[in-house]
């Protein structure tokens, strides 16, 4: 027998059930409460969710029907009778002397259950009404918030959604009313289920319950008609507007022929049916596509005849007994003392242990023969990403080893004639792999019901390439391997496109790499011309490396770069590396940013122009060199980026501040001595240093400048250089000073 379920390694140890010890389990927050001698010897709270365990004593308890702690563990609520609930405040792990209670409104009313809906709000469910109270523990009283009249027979509280499901009986139907509890009681929907669907004996069974699968609430019922037991699931919609019969869990034949004792657990979104008599269980996955009859999915168990693995309980973990235990105690599954609690807890009342059920994925993989069902099963499990990827890789590699003779050696023309109609025959093994890829791709695009963190990057890390470079394969076999891998990638891209998932650049690069290594260049040409592979810089660079083996790759790569943004520099470098200055010059014509964005030398010549001249000189063709040289001469010289018509000059306040730090001689004319500031509009003046339009004039030398850098340079110029600049403009320094005076 396969053991697909395990007990957790660290169970919760508590006092065993006895005449003086009572055990209570809170289904809402999965807390285990142990009460010794009506609280006089202590009350202990233990849970897998909370790290701190609480233990204290209460001396005033007489009878305990239910006991629950608030979310903050600072208030203890105890139902002492059918009509009374007592409250105790907890401070620093100790109950103070204050006690306050809440009674029913009338003598004919009794409490069915109560729930903590928030930190200080408690909901009473009675046989006649729903009562929401606010607990003011500072004043030791309860304040009613809202009361809703309803006749309830069964109820279920869903803490994650803050919703209450109440079932009441009508003439011919059962009414299921859904309430939203958030500081008030708001009715969401009222659903009707015929009595023919739910037998009257259903409510007496433990199998009637609500549970959550993939954030969806289901109603589970157990029907037994003519010795044919059936488990039916009713699914609630997202808007809680309807409750429809969605799934029927098919039971084995030997389960139907006799009365059996069943229990239900929910482990990692799997429905687990426990057969206590046969001591094994069945696993059902309602998310896997199953046979549909009258819009109801009849789900077959995905793993049958499995059980819970036996374990050993260490002696130090066993509680105190009359006879000390010095050896480990074996734990056999499905013993008579076991009790199953929602969603996945097992409690041994005699031994005093509580375990969580855990799914053993490695064993499940070995017992599920169908690869498609296995992939769907792993996709819906949490923490199964590595197992899923290794399973895909293993199945694909097995297929690659077994299909060299009849799949790989197909003629390429016949293959591509077959692709438009149907890429792969449904009987072939590769079609199974293609279906697996569709399952995983749909998982990537899903926003709900997914427990895995899958994306294209994760898939590419192990996409059937780990064993391709094995030393046992020859070079010819390696080409065939890459041919199969490229076919798988083709199915992967097709599945992504059908699911409307944008392709990542790494995915296309890996596809091109597989096709190139398999030397299927005709297939690569069809992919490129058919725009299956989008335009990208990295793909184009891969194609340029194939020039010696694939002549068309060079031109295809250049066309791809021309259609891609931000690739002008790459294109120019490619043309220059091929010693083709005419193509580079033809591409650069009309693109001013190619020239202006590049660095210029001291003479204002762009570096691109110098590279063009050097390449043209290497061609030893006078006509090519002359054409390139004439175009370079027609360029406007520029020295720096700030000289291309940009207003980078400083304002007057900055110039005055810089002028104060200069060591001017006595009586020299400075900016601070000028009465009128220059005009705010740029005049039609030309800088003496750079030749661009300027706005300012240096007062000492009379030279015009446009930027602060030119101003600093003018201040450091000797007098003879200043006179040369002025003479070039046709003025002298004396005429300048006489003009401003």
Automatic annotation (TrEMBL):
Residues 685-714 form the Vps72/YL1 C-terminal domain. It holds the Pfam family RMC1_C. InterPro entries: RMC1, RMC1_C, RMC1_N, Vps72/YL1_C. It comes from the Eukaryota. PANTHER family: COLON CANCER-ASSOCIATED PROTEIN MIC1 (PTHR12897), REGULATOR OF MON1-CCZ1 COMPLEX (PTHR12897:SF4). This is Vps72/YL1 C-terminal domain-containing protein. It comes from Cichlidogyrus casuarinus. The lineage of its organism: Eukaryota, Metazoa, Spiralia, Lophotrochozoa, Platyhelminthes.
